[in-house]
Automatic annotation (TrEMBL):
Family named by the database record: Belongs to the ATPase protein 8 family.
Record bears the keyword Transmembrane: yes
Keyword Mitochondrion set for record: yes
GO terms for biological process, alphabetical: proton motive force-driven ATP synthesis
Main location: mitochondrion
Any one annotated GO CC term: mitochondrial membrane
Swiss-Prot/TrEMBL keywords: ATP synthesis, CF(0), Hydrogen ion transport, Ion transport, Membrane, Mitochondrion, Transmembrane, Transmembrane helix, Transport
Name the UniProt record assigns to this protein: ATP synthase complex subunit 8
Length: 55
């Protein structure tokens, strides 16, 4: 079964991950997120118990 032979595919996988981590990842991380979690305010909701009609 040639799918189990890692020799040709391991180098391709390693090259693609290195390309992603060296070239594409810094470019993607340089964008400023418009949805920063530190700017969000927390809302505390009041939890009320469920009223069952038959109790």
């Amino acid at each position: 079964m040639p799918q189990l032979n890692p020799n040709p595919w391991f180098l391709i996988m390693l090259t693609s991950w290195l390309t992603f981590s060296m070239i594409f990842q810094p470019k993607l991380l340089s964008f400023i997120s418009s949805n920063s979690p530190s700017n969000k305010t927390t809302f505390i909701t009041k939890m009320s118990p469920w009223t069952w009609p038959w109790t």
